[in-house]
From TrEMBL:
GO molecular function: hydrolase activity
Signal peptide region: 1-25
Superkingdom field: Bacteria
Keywords: Hydrolase, Signal
Name of the protein described by the UniProt record: Class F sortase
Organism name: Nocardioides piscis
Length: 180
């Protein structure tokens, strides 16, 4: 059986921003990509017991005109790219959620997760293997976050290090996990 390579447009994270968007589009060649016509449908909630997240709604989103992941305004829901990998399928599903300076943001305490902690999306259970706090990620590292290859994994991402003076978030917190 022959496979053909096609061009997949993937969001890339803008880690130096202070605004609402967290991704912009770039291109990666892949042989196994989700096409632009397919959509991620996630009916199962995200549960992270250690953080008290008992069922965050997962909302599929597209890209803004500027190519940024169109993360919505809800601070209690999380967001996945509608042309990306579904949590539990082979490859890496990226789930973005807000922190909120007034509290009650779904990922306010995301940085408290550590290796060995578990969370679930529906029936799929994931175990955390790494937590990173970064100011920037290169294009290749971002493409790897949105990869459609390899074992089933999830990357949870949110803002971190908010300046009390400016209100700008200086970093992103990334939690990497593999399916159990």
């Amino acid at each position: 059986m022959r496979t053909t390579k096609r061009l997949l447009i993937v969001p890339t994270l803008l880690l130096s921003l202070g605004g609402a968007g967290i991704a912009s589009a770039s291109q990666a060649t892949t042989s196994n990509a989700v096409t632009q016509n397919e959509r991620v449908v996630v009916r199962a909630p995200l549960k992270v017991p250690k953080l008290g997240i008992t069922g965050a709604r997962i909302i599929p989103v597209g890209l803004t005109r500027g190519g940024q992941l169109a993360v919505g305004p809800s601070v209690t829901a999380v967001y996945v790219w509608n042309n990306g990998v579904r949590p539990g399928q082979p490859g890496s599903a990226v789930i973005a959620g807000h922190t909120w300076s007034r509290g009650a943001g779904v990922f306010d305490n995301l940085g408290r997760l550590g290796a060995g902690d578990r969370f679930s999306v529906g029936r799929s259970v994931f175990v955390v293997n790494r937590v990173r706090r970064v100011q920037t990620l290169g294009p290749r590292a971002v493409r790897d976050l949105f990869s459609d290859r390899g074992p089933s994994r999830v990357v949870l991402i949110t803002c971190g290090d908010r300046s009390a003076t400016t209100g700008v978030y200086a970093s992103r917190i990334l939690v990497y996990a593999e399916k159990v």
